[in-house]
Amino acid sequence: xxxxxxxxxxxxxxxxxxxxxxxxxxxxxxxxxxxxxxxxxxxxxxxxxxxxxxxxxxxxxxxxxxxxxxxxxxxxxxxxxxxxxxxxxxxxxxxxxxxxxxxxxxxxxxxxxxxxxxxxxxxxxxxxxxxxxxxxxxxxxxxxxxxxxxxxxxxxxxxxxxxxxxxxxxxxxxxxxxxxxxxxxxxxxxxxxxxxxxxxxxxxxxxxxxxxxxxxxxxxxxxxxxxxxxxxxxxxxxxxxxxxxxxxxxxxxxxxxxxxxxxxxxxxxxxxxxxxxxxxxxxxxxxxxxxxxxxxxxxxxxxxxxxxxxxxxxxxxxxxxxxx
Length: 324
Description:
The chain is of the alpha/beta class. It folds into two domains: 5-168, CATH 2.40.50.180; 170-323, Rossmann fold (3-Layer(aba) Sandwich). 26% of the residues lie in helices and 31% in strands. It is built from nine helices and 16 strands. Strand 1 (17-28) and strand 2 form a beta hairpin. Helix 6 (226-243) packs parallel to helix 7 (265-273). The termini are far apart.
């Protein structure tokens, strides 16, 4: 399956729509019967879908990395997605396929039992997982889509990659050890008077951002999707009007992901910039999908700057430049 990423509707202006590839894993039950499980990934993260390639073993690889293969001159690790999820599937590779992804400036291959179709849906149709699941850093489902008789689980592929290759993940970053970031009593006091709204559907990523900001001295408010963030901001807006106060007394900057249930980050920026009270709010988009085209689109909608997700080391300096 060839994916035309240039036509991705992510790049359209705040449409609050996306396209997902539905794929499946065939779970082998204890009685030997099989059950089909359905999952999804944003088309914007997919480079192509290929037959299972020949792989070469890689020394000391993580247990669920089956080896590496060459595709168009690039070496790509092949990840046993079912193995990472703890799902037993048939071992025959004949009918399986590989989803080749390209995000966070990395390419990876994920072994799955088949790809079904592409769905074009509104983010409003994408539901957050239950509070019980979402509350855990270990949860790997960021959203759920209801399609006909199936529930499609949207997986947190950033978490999968961070677990498989921690050396390349944001978990290694410690702002207190970053010599480019000033952390002393004066800066802690300055940042301590400022509040940042963090918007991300992944509990794993959200807590990484929160920990970085809090360690540098900032106060943090968190929202799990664009709809919740907009509700928070509208509440601040009402207080501003009723009490004749500035939004800066409540929040000084917003950091938002792009891909989120209910309302994506692009649509959130568009909605906020339509409200006069929030025209001065600094907004930074923090996404694994921040290509040059998406960066241009985010800036055109009203974002002040963008960061690609591995570059969490840029975050505190960038926010300092906007709010201090």
